[in-house]
Amino acid sequence: MTEKTPRLRPALDGVPTYKPGKPAAADGPVAYKLSSNENPYPPLPGVLEKAVDAAGTINRYPDMTCTALMAELADRFSVPVSHLATGTGSVGVAQQLVQATSGPGDEVIYAWRSFEAYPIITQVSGATPVQVPLTDDEVHDLDAMLAAITERTRLIFVCNPNNPTGTVVRRAELESFLDRVPADVLVVLDEAYIEFVRDADVPDGLDLYRDRPNVCVLRTFSKAYGLAGLRVGFAVAHEPVAAALRKTAVPFGVSHIAQEAAIASLRSEDALQERVRALVEERARVVEALAGQGWTVPETQANFVWLRLGERAADFAAACEKAGVVVRPFPGEGIRATIGETAANDLFLEVAAAFRKEL
Ligand SMILES: Cc1ncc(COP(=O)(O)O)c(C=O)c1O
């Protein structure tokens, strides 16, 4: 007798499970996690108090429309509330965008390598991923992405800065790209790391979305704002895209604690800027030290660095782990190391120096 099992959608065959960055070792003498592009700082001033207060009402469902947070975001970014949609982290909103635009037979274009969730959410929707290789400089190849557009293209992700390389596309090239994408194809500017950008030629997606109905900007509270554990992100898009996001949202996905913490974080702008400044300074120190050791480091505008190690990627990551610092390996390609606390960065640099001598 053959055992019957529930029938699952064939679209899921071959879909990888999302791999989170490894946690820091529990037992070593030192243990730092530089594998998930998290913020090493604790919540911004005032945030924890608001979150604890909010925890007092967890017997109730949260405000499903995130009214207070939406009002705060609308004010902060000078956008209409009707153009805003929140979700369970920006990855949740990204998934809603794919669900809203793309199903079987449709194509979703993105650079590769880029954020690991793009292929997963595309395939889960039943759509076909179209991966366009980064240039030799590890940057989005916007011309090749344009050339990849077909009648079936529904959505294009542009990850700026790109995860895991930290590289950026600049205003002139991005504007020229957007001018050439058909008006019925949605372009999602994933700006998860925008707060860390210091290159004045990198555009703020919100300036680009305003007169372009097919552009959507994705932002998150997980990185610079340091709320990765609370799962809250948002999109800014014109109707009907924003309206579609409200339809594809998981009801009550953003908890009351997350909403209150996000509002308090937005109100702590000075402390946010100070922490971001310190991390950007650390980034410069790490990049300079790596270059001094002889590494080629792509120019990063995010809170991480990328080393293209090819076949040595897994060995490098293992050496880091042995030393008490966990980075993110992409076997056969490279490693991504988050800019963390100074001691963690120092440890990472020590491993990099020793490894460099072996190469
Ligand atoms: C480019 C990019 N977009 C989106 C996300 C998702 O972040 P979250 O869902 O925590 O907002 C990440 C997280 O690593 C990312 O690197």
Succession of helices and strands: EHHEHEHEHEHEHEEHHHEHEEEH
Q: Name the strands of the widest sheet in spatial order.
A: 2-8-7-6-5-3-4
Mean pLDDT: 96
Q: How many β-strand runs? A: 12
List the ligand species.
pyridoxal-5'-phosphate
Shape: globular
**Rg, Cα atoms, Å:** 21 Å
List unreliable stretches of 5+ residues.
Answer: none
Quaternary assembly:
single chain
Strand-pairing-aware structural class = alpha/beta
Alpha carbon gap, first and last residue: 57 Å
Biggest beta sheet attributes = 7 strands, mixed
Portion of residues in helices? 25-40%
Number of helices: 12
Please state roughly what percent of the residues sit in beta strands, choosing from under 5%, 5-15%, 15-25%, 25-35%, 35-45% or over 45%: 15-25%
